[in-house]
Amino acid sequence: MHDPSSPYPSAHSTGLASLYPVPTMDNLPDISMVFPALRSSRSCSRAPRRLSSVPEPSQTLLLLRNFLQETRDRLHFSPSQSPIPDDAQLNDLSDGETILIPFICSSLNALASMTKQLDTITTQLAIVQSLVATLPTSSALDSKLSPINASLHDL
After folding, report:
1. Cα separation of 117 and 97, whole Å?
2. Is there a domain that residue 10 lies in?
3. Is residue 96 a part of any domain in this protein?
4. How many domains does the chain have?
5. How far apart are CA 3 and CA 46, in angstroms?
6. CA–CA gap between residue 82 and residue 105 (Å, rounded)
7. What is the pLDDT of residues 96-111, one digit of tens each?
8. Would you place residue 27 in the very low, low, confident or very high pLDDT band (cuts 50, 70, 90)?
9. In 76-137, which residue ranges form alpha helices assigned H by DSSP?
10. Domain range spanning residue 109?
11. Of 150, 60, 47, residue with least CA distance to 99
12. Taking a C-beta distance cutoff of 8 angstroms, is the pair 130, 24 a contact?
């Protein structure tokens, strides 16, 4: 995002965002639509409750839950966009889902990093463009250098 205190334009103000829309929290899908096992009827903002009839998830599934939590926190997702599964939901995940979730989290982290880098590059490009615009034209340089060229030619 563009820093209002910065004199340099961001990707959003230079028109790049219209060509390549930057994902926002408003246009991201609910992750539970992709992974049905993450759907919950109760509020995701509460800590998961331990039910006596639900076996404790494996260490791998607990690491997966931590990875989801770290990704959600790092990307500033809301709990409704990326709910953290409780023990029962973790146990309900299929093998395919437990394989895909780390790839999706890593991809989201990579996209967020690339978006920041693209914004930096766009800002740098805008600075270079503004500097190029202030350079004198070749005809202005020729008119200033013509007397020097003539004297060199006479020597």
Report:
1. 30
2. no
3. yes
4. 1
5. 34
6. 11
7. 888 898 898 889 889 8
8. low
9. 87-92, 95-134
10. 16-45+53-154
11. 60
12. no
